[in-house]
Amino acid sequence: MILADLHTHTRYSHGGNTPHEMHAAAAAKGLELIGFSEHSPRPQGFDYRNEYREHLSRHLPDYAREVQELKKIHAHGPCRVLFGMEMDWLDGEEEHVRAACTAWDFDYLLGSVHFLGRWGFDDGSDAWKDLSQEECEKHYVAYFTAWQRMIASGLFRIAAHPDLIKIFSVERFHVWLADPCSLELIRQGLQALRDQGMSMEISSAGLRKACREIYPAPPIMALAAELELPVSFASDAHGRDDVGYGFARLASYARSFGFREYTVFERGRRTTHPI
Q1: Cα 200 to the chain's mean position, in Å?
Q2: Minimal CB count within 10 Å: which of 26, 153, 243, 250?
Q3: Which backbone phi and psi does 109 adopt, to 5 degrees?
Q4: Which of 208, 135, 146, 205 is nearest to 169 (CA)?
Q5: What residue ranges define each of the domains in the chain, with the CATH number in brackets?
Q6: To 5 degrees, how large is the angle CA 75–CA 81–CA 87?
Q7: What Å distances lie between residue 78 and 2, 34, 107, 244, CA to CA?
């Protein structure tokens, strides 16, 4: 049974609820742990169409204060709180990323890739509609290459939504994934993840997105199982209704590949819990 959701967002980025409301939802659903992992502010030039950078930057101190207060209030349960952040890995902006990672005393940090160069590839489907298979595959290779650099940085504890790149091209992604060379590229990233002592996130967010598929896809899960990677679970909730979303399905999915426990990081210390 999964009792920890380590990837959630609040109204301080583009979520819909306060930390208090998100925690209340987690407690109501029987979770024993909720990890807050608000987005990190991105530099100018790394933009979404509905950009929330200024709002997020202005309210980050509020986010940190409210989550740390919740952590103290609920230190003894029944639903404890962890203080984290989801950091965008931005090639060429490593110093910015490193500075953001040390801004507060986090329990853990999620590392994720949302940008290839200055393109936020998950910011709507329009850019993907007319791409050929070959063009998509270049993006997949670029994504997993950046993902490896993110892992190699040593800054993060959990690799979030490992195959987010499939969000708007899932059929073409699976064509690419069937190529042994593609799997070898991903294997290299997973091996680096293991060597860094990180955990791979298994996320229900894809079930609510255009790809309608858990992150990561079965072939990646099989590689992770073969490498005996630690895993963590997440909803990537941006509203209280999605906290713990699909966790029974995630548990069944993980068990089908032989996973029997999941990992939590608290102040950098790793603990494991039965699924």
Answers
A1: 9
A2: 153
A3: -130, 135
A4: 135
A5: 4-274 (3.20.20.140)
A6: 145
A7: 15, 11, 19, 16
The number of beta carbons lying within 10 Å of the beta carbon of residue 7 is 25
E-only strand ranges, the chain: 4-8, 33-39, 80-88, 108-112, 115-116, 119-120, 158-159, 199-203, 231-234, 261-266, 269-274
d(CA 103, CA 231): 26
Closest of 222, 124, 110, 118 to residue 161, by C-alpha: 110
CA 215 to chain centre: 9
Chain center to CA of 233: 9
Single-letter code of the amino acid located at 203: S
- Dihedral sign computed on CA atoms, order 25, 28, 29, 30: positive
| Cα–Cα distance for residue pair 161/247, rounded to 1 Å | 15
pTM for this entry: 0.97
Looking at residue 52, its pLDDT comes to: 83
